[in-house]
Amino acid sequence: MKQKNLKIILLHGNGGSTVEDNWFPYAKTEFEKLGLKVISKTFPDNKLARSEYWLPFLRDELKADEKTILVGSSTGAVAAMRFAEANKIYGSVINGLFNLPQLMIHTFQLQNQDTFTIN
Predict the structure, then answer these.
(1) Which of 6, 23, 29, 118 has its CB surrounded by the most CB atoms within 10 Å?
(2) Which domains does the chain have, with CATH numbers?
(3) Distance separating alpha carbons of residues 4 and 94, to the nearest angstrom
């Protein structure tokens, strides 16, 4: 039942979390049963989850692209949203979004040139 060569990338939270924690092993097994490729790797800097490490890791190491569904929990959900701001992905599933300053502080520019910051 492989759909469009989609792949799933699992994004765990910070505080030392890994892809072996919580529901990630179960989700990986269930996605694989559906014929989906699942990338399940612990992110660098998993204690602090700084965007300067996590976002390049998604792009350069895990090869997230327009055929990728990002599945993130806690700060992994934040990273999924931040990655999608500047990169094309197929979609995302976010769970238990957590506001971590290293990933959340970001300035947006709207079409009408107004600028605002989310803290």
Answers:
(1) 6
(2) 7-118 (3.40.50.1820)
(3) 21
pLDDT tens, residue by residue, 37-67: 999 999 998 888 888 999 999 999 999 999 9
> What is the structure's pLDDT at 71?
94
Cα 29–chain centre separation: 18
Q: What is the mean pLDDT of the chain?
A: 81
Q: Is the pTM of this model over 0.85?
A: no
Query: Closest Cα partner for 63 from 13, 2, 10, 9?
Result: 9
| Burial per residue of 107-118, b for 16 or more beta-carbon CB atoms within 10 angstroms, e otherwise | eeeeeeeeeeee
Burial class of residue 102, CB neighbours in 10 A (0-12, 13-18, 19+): middle
Higher confidence at residue 104 or residue 75? 75
Candidates 93, 97, 102; CA nearest to 47 is 102
